[in-house]
Amino acid sequence: MADISGINSEGDNAFMAKSLLGTDVEPMYSGANSFMRRKYTRDLRDADVAISGIPYDCATTGRSGTRLGPQAVRKASANLAWAPHFPSGLDVFETLAVADYGDLVFDPGEPMTIPDAIESHAKTILDTNTAMVTLGGDHFVTYPILKAHAEKHGQLALIQIDAHSDTWEEDQQRIDHGTMFYHAAKQGIIDPASSAQVGIRTHNDKTHGFNIIHAPWVHEKGPEAVVTEIKRIVGDRKAYLTFDIDSLDPAFAPGTGTPVTGGLTPHQALTILRGLEGINIVGADVVEVSPAYDVSDITALAGATMAFEMLYLMALQKKKKEA
Q1: What is the pLDDT of residue 1?
Q2: Which of 45, 53, 144, 154 could form a disulfide with 118 if both were Cys (CB 3.0 to 4.6 A apart)?
Q3: 297 annotated binding-site participant
Q4: How many Å apart are CA 237 and CA 289, to the nearest integer?
Q5: Number of structural domains, the chain?
Q6: 162 marked as part of a ligand binding site
Q7: pLDDT score recorded for residue 201
Q8: Is residue 22 part of a domain?
Q9: Would 24 be classed as within a structural domain?
């Protein structure tokens, strides 16, 4: 149950906050739905991390609707915004200055311009030396975001938590949420040998050099073994973390476009994310939340929780650098 004894009488911290640091408690059922009640601003001079939404779903191969994902995840995050991180007890927002940058606006009637628009959007944020945690949108949005991160940081390791490999081959490059990591690897944006795909439970004839940790292996060996394997694979390389909500079993996350039975439990996913402490994560996203197929917002809440865990990891990185 939320402790609302310290409610901010002004409310609407998304607009009224005087700083990007700190937590002002307000009712979870009212007010402007910024992510975790962070301040909406495009001024990133004091920001460590910008939350950004990419409401795009035209790359889906099945059920659409993830364009509504950022909005749903923000709304669900109000359920989490009143308390420090569990189980660490760390008040993430006393350490990490986080702004909600809002959503990318684009013209859906000009589909071939959208990948460049997403990449430009990411570059604009990264050029201020602000890290990104992005809310999708379908999983294709990760590809142009990765391009912008690789331009800034060099070739990256990819930590992908997903039901699908998203490395299916194609003769020409299309806007598709099932092929983009095939192209990212071919183009040298990510290094497959230093990348881990976790929770995979759909068949692909080729690995393209990626290290695949299938969902049955996670269930058999446990999340702690997964963390050990990810750290072995990634080492000290700069890494980008992408979490497709369909990595969770549809019992826990029905609100997604391509659900696959046999997936991770929220406990497994959270244990894996928390175990990534020490990996040099330079950017992250949560994608494929599709509210039209959700039940009581449980998928949106799962997405918000995973994004909060990403901020927790970034807060730990900052504390380590400052120590």
Answers
A1: 39
A2: 144
A3: no
A4: 29
A5: 1
A6: yes
A7: 98
A8: no
A9: no
